[in-house]
Design brief:
This protein has helices spanning 106-115, 125-129; strands spanning 9-21, 41-53, 61-69, 75-84, 90-101, 138-153. The protein has two helices and six strands; from the N terminus they run E-E-E-E-E-H-H-E. The protein starts with 8 loop residues before the first strand and ends in a 23-residue tail after the last strand.
């Protein structure tokens, strides 16, 4: 009896939302700036997910929304960012540029600051898709670092070339 060819592929991802640079204090997973010279926010928030699919159309993304208190104690957006989940096996490090929406006029900027209601997206799909964002004024606001460990099964058997392992200079565990 011949073995049946696979009809789906699996992608297993684990890793972590590691740290941020250039952002103010955040409350996504409570953290504060480190006391060393780097002044980074360290989360080490775990990621562990498995995907099963027949094709990579609409490939998953991780959307980050970082919030933190303003001078009045209101929680306001400190940054948005998105990254596609890597699909080649191995260890991947991604640095995601973060951005925040800006008011279009000085009057709106002052009013939103005074009222504690700064511009923000109500739907995270806006960050992931980018559709409609070309009319939004944004400002760069630091970077967030994510670490991914990816394992795949049956992608090559279904005809998907995942290319060489993308380690970006990271060392994995060595074999004895």
């Amino acid at each position: 009896m011949a073995a049946a060819s696979p009809s789906v592929f699996l992608l297993m991802v684990n890793g972590q939302v590691e740290s941020a640079q250039g952002l103010e204090e955040g409350i996504s997973q409570i953290t504060s700036k480190s006391q060393d010279v780097r002044r980074v926010l360290v989360w080490n928030f775990p990621i562990d997910v498995t995907f099963k699919s027949t094709n990579p159309y609409g490939w998953p993304q991780i959307v980050l929304s970082v919030y933190g208190p303003d001078v009045f104690g209101n929680d306001v957006v400190r940054g948005y960012g998105a990254v596609h989940v890597p699909f080649s096996p191995g260890r991947h490090k991604r640095t995601i540029p973060m951005f925040v929406p800006e008011s279009t006029s000085k009057l709106q900027k002052f009013t939103s600051w005074f009222m504690g209601r700064r511009p923000e997206y109500t739907d995270p799909k806006v960050v992931a898709q980018g559709e409609g964002r070309e009319v939004t004024r944004v400002r760069s606001q630091g970077f967030v670092t994510l670490l991914f460990n990816v394992v795949t099964k049956d992608m090559r058997k279904l005809g998907y070339d995942t290319g060489p392992v993308d380690t970006q200079g990271l060392q994995g565990p060595s074999l004895p």
